[in-house]
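Limitations

Structures in this collection are predictions, not experimental determinations, and the ligand pose is part of the prediction. Treat each record accordingly. The example that follows, with adenosine monophosphate as the small molecule, is included so readers can see exactly what is and is not provided: the inputs are given verbatim, and the output is the predicted complex.
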Amino acid sequence: MKFKSIRDFDLKGKTVLLRADLNVPTKNGVVTDSTRIDRLRPTVDHLAKQGARIVVLSHFGRPKGAPDPEFSLSFLAPSLKESWGVDVVFGSDCIGTSAREAIAKATPGQIVLLENLRFHKGEEANDPTFTKELAALGDVYVNDAFSAAHRAHASTEGLAHHLPTAAGLLMEAELTALTNALESPKKPVMAIVGGAKISTKLSVLHNLVRKVDYLVLGGGMANTFFFAKGGEVGKSLCEKDMAEEARAIMSEADKAGCKIVLPADRVCVRAFGPDAPNAVYPMDSVPADMESVDVGPETIRAVTEILKTCKTVLWNGPLGVFEVKPFDSGTNGLARAVADLTAKGGLLSVAGGGDTVSALENAGVCERFSYVSTAGGAFLEWMEGKPLPGVAALSASQRTAA
Ligand code: AMP
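Predicted complex:
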């Protein structure tokens, strides 16, 4: 995939429209996890050092295409200032007179944060008139919002057709990591997929079996596969109506030379809850009155042995009900094995999507993986093999605008 990076541009004196993903988790108006903001700092630093005037564009929440104070971005200016170490001023609309005035009034070195893009219907509709109004505010468009790249919105896709376009450093890091993990990986490649249900990850599984050497399944979805092979799962979470799908995935895997690895043992409980009495059973002996809530130690040992032979691992989804202790043990054990092998060198480890980041944070290994993506939906759609409109536009813009 070819695209321009901000390192390819001379940005001195240019007004840069920086599409960021500031859709951060909050509680009572306070940011509870600033990872997405912090990860934008290298791009902000680079643009500032180059002498660009930075105008930040983002969505926040799901307002219905009209101004709604509940979803205003104004509260974020102090958090950006704290994380990026620069003065941030707020513009009360993302287009029109107030946007232009906020940009014109900003002193050199000040960053302008414009109001929520989704206060205008034109954003999600990728409306050409709205896109042109946005484009009129700047000289260069920088997309650093990989986590919004699965949407073909005005600010994630449309702008690339109107202005010289570059990927920000976070976007570049995401795309490099993802390409190295699945598009042109060092082999053998292992994918670890956990989570509750296979029904939400069918396309991911269909795509992965064609691309990886080992597909390790954990979480509730492993039960569905085991059931589809004729096994008994007791009271475990199992999508029995998905058995046919699971068999189709297993047969595709066979044809493609991908080995599906199911848990060897399971941690089971009679009544689920924190510190619930539990016991480990071989996968084929889960008692009829118990449910499995985690993978057991033999599974971790066996998967680690295979992992030692691999050069690349891609991880999505927890292996057990990691939110409730001690049923995070399986996820933690395998996460530490991945982190240790990564540290030794020779293993590239990439993770992301949905609950994966919190599961790996809980295991205390996020910093020790090669790359952990902050993207949810975009990461999953990429794992499904779908083209992401925001990324496609970055490549296409090389021909149209740059
Ligand atoms: P997903 O969003 O599909 O990645 O699913 C994540 C959820 O799967 C987490 O909330 C886990 O608690 C849940 N989960 C993982 N393993 C199991 C299991 N064995 N039984 C039920 N839920 C599980």
